């Protein structure tokens, strides 16, 4: 990536120092000659109230505070914050800096699922070679061993699991195929998110609001949870991207029904991801009312242990995840205000879908987003990139690695530059 000559870099540094420019809060700032930020030639100092903080060997960012000890630690993730009654501007504790999870979506079983909650029977395509798909198992092994990822999200349609009926009656033949992907994920040692990819719907109708009753949805989750109750690497993703749900409080009741069912099926300790409205937008999670509604969901014992908010955010201009170019790092509009709310309310969120094209704008903005999430690891568990699995070569957000003749793998540029935990190691 670095094409400039050393003398050009030196000239740039000299220039930057001589004009004393200051970078805004949350933007990238300069490194030193010995660990130079990916050829960074911009500001080397930060605006008042923030400090240029080394977030990796090749990336620094202006983080609010005095910077006393905000360098990332290489140890385990920080404990959840405790709730406070006021919501004054806040900043991450010094223990923040390392995300608990980084991963990739392994798509295929969700193919054929539309945003109206229909899932065409013929659409599902297992991303496994034994079922004539791509080598999702090999991809995951590579992502763990070569890149340092430790979580995969495995989308599947409700219809696939039950062979078309809106109940909790699992079709064992279909489940065997899906479980093969889950087991391939578990075999890597990673955590595995079981993601029901139905947009809060079944065949066009909203769960608990005209569609399947909450009891039916709870029965589905009871069946799934029973299969994985004794495996603490399983994470239950209750629902992919609810949208246009008319009553967010009724939706919270549907989510509560699923949580209760999962816990009562014996999966008492695993993480459960709670999805809000508006495509689980991180940006409108608080303003659209999802935060307050889902904040009331509890475990059967009244605790909130393991209940994590599920949020998505893409980096293109319309947050759709369909454009190659990225236009934002989402920090000012989404991640900073969300971190504030989470810290104030003693909660945590997991960004289970994010992505961009394999282009320079995304490499810049995605690296900034990941760095911000790392710096706020007390409230953000991590991120999962969209997507690898069965996507075709050339898919705009492809994170599908290519396998070389010698068996090694080559990552897509965005994975190699920003998403892989080892990217900056
Ligand atoms: C399902 O299949 C029908 C017929 O092939 C098609 O018109 C429709 O677009 C498909 N829906 C999805 C979500 O793929
Ligand atoms: C269940 O699996 C069978 C066998 O692969 C498949 O034909 C069927 O389409 C699946 N059902 C759904 C609803 O996807
Ligand atoms: C949904 O979220 C997007 C940004 O993620 C925002 O632009 C839009 O206004 C939101 N819609 C609603 C209804 O909140
Ligand atoms: C949230 O978004 C929905 C549309 O998805 C909208 O109808 C509703 O008014 C919004 N609620 C709030 C509190 O903004
Ligand atoms: C942003 C993005 O790629 N979204 C995809 C989510 O997954 C469905 C299939 O499950 C695709 O149709 C979407 O394009």
TrEMBL record:
Query: Could you tell me which SMART domains the record lists for this protein?
Result: fCBD
Family to which this protein belongs: Belongs to the glycosyl hydrolase 5 (cellulase A) family.
Q: Does the keyword Hydrolase apply?
A: yes
Which protein are we looking at?
cellulase
The EC number of this protein is: 3.2.1.4
Q: Which domain of life is it from?
A: Eukaryota
Q: Which GO terms describe its molecular function?
A: cellulase activity; cellulose binding
Q: Output the Gene Ontology cellular-component terms.
A: extracellular region
> What does the record list as GO biological process?
cellulose catabolic process
| Entry-linked PANTHER family | CBM1 DOMAIN-CONTAINING PROTEIN, ENDO-BETA-1,4-GLUCANASE A
Reaction(s) catalysed (UniProt annotation): Endohydrolysis of (1->4)-beta-D-glucosidic linkages in cellulose, lichenin and cereal beta-D-glucans
- Look up the signal peptide feature and give its range: 1-23
* Region described as Disordered: 70-91
The CBM1 domain covers: 21-63
Key words of the record: Carbohydrate metabolism, Cellulose degradation, Glycosidase, Hydrolase, Polysaccharide degradation, Signal
